[in-house]
Amino acid sequence: MKITDKLSHAHASEQAPPTFSFEFFTPKTTQGVQNLYDRMDRMYNLNPLFIDITWNAGGRLSTLTTEMVNTTSTVLGLETCMHLTCTNMDLKLIDDALQSAYDSGCQNILALRGDPPLDGSESTGDFKYALHLIKYIKSKYGDHFNIGIAGYPEGHPEDEGDQAKTIEFLKAKQDAGGDFIVTQMFYDADRFIDWCHKIREAGITIPVIPGIMPISTYAAFLRRAKWSEIHIPQHFMERLTPIKDDDAKVREEGTQLVIEMCQRIVEAGVVNHLHFYTMNLEKATLMILEGLNLVSKQQITDMKQPWRKSLNPNRINESVRPIFWKNRKFTYIQRTSNWDEP
Ligand SMILES: Cc1cc2nc3c(=O)[nH]c(=O)nc-3n(C[C@H](O)[C@H](O)[C@H](O)COP(=O)(O)OP(=O)(O)OC[C@H]3O[C@@H](n4cnc5c(N)ncnc54)[C@H](O)[C@@H]3O)c2cc1C
Known about the structure:
342 residues, TIM Barrel, 9-stranded parallel beta sheet, 13 helices, binds flavin-adenine dinucleotide, FAD binding
């Protein structure tokens, strides 16, 4: 189903609570892929509106996205959005990815340009901007796919602070067929709210899905903010810096800060959906969802069970492993001990 249709249904009533979704990236190892399928499947019990899987241009990892989207859509039955970049790639790879998504029932594509090569050379390929990929998808598939586009509340680094220019190109992507916007991560709620008002004034009407990055460690928090060239508000630094060497405290305080940021943007009425960059982990995202009262303790407990709850009324409250698990060669604890492996 299309993400915009799901959003409309979920928010038919203005009182409906915010919905949410999870981003995952393609793991480097086969074991990592299997671990991630288990995690996606379990996190789906939290009832996200959809999940999405990032794209890596070049090498095995780009075809891995296609394979994973096929598995999550076909085998796991998860509503999936496939990221697809268009520069530095053969047209055939793009065609194959779109056809595979089409065949597997995936109806959502986040159409991206991709970053230029790290060595500073010119990008290659049939497309120059995400805009061209959107037009291409439309020309081949009409309205079959719901097309997501990337938005930058604090500007794209290549636009050198020219916000009007970034918004103008965002509008061009909407006008070419973009159906929803997924944003770059941010921590400054005020800047984000201001940007939402500006894009609406510029005639951008499609839903905005804010990218929320949980805070797990102090070093990762600073590193990601630096990579993305986003502003860190003063109160984040004041509350995190004194505890920077204690990971558990940083996660707890960081969670509280992100919860406050989410509450603020929802209360401002600019968004009704939150998109979490899970980094393929679940704890930090879960803590935020729990703090926002978007999932219950029971849902989290159920999610942690290594089997699906019985629908049989006589067995619905069982909290011990069903008998067939005894035949497994390794225990659940052994098999899942490295579930955080990326
Ligand atoms: C939510 C999100 C998810 C992402 N997922 C991935 C991923 O899975 N894989 C990956 O490799 N990267 C991913 N990226 C990173 C993305 O590929 C880079 O940020 C890239 O530099 C820009 O992609 P874009 O689609 O925004 O490009 P574009 O919209 O094409 O914009 C790129 C730059 O060109 C300018 N521009 C746009 N159109 C025009 C035009 N017509 N004329 C002149 N200038 C123009 C823009 O203002 C901007 O500065 C993601 C980014 C976001 C925000």
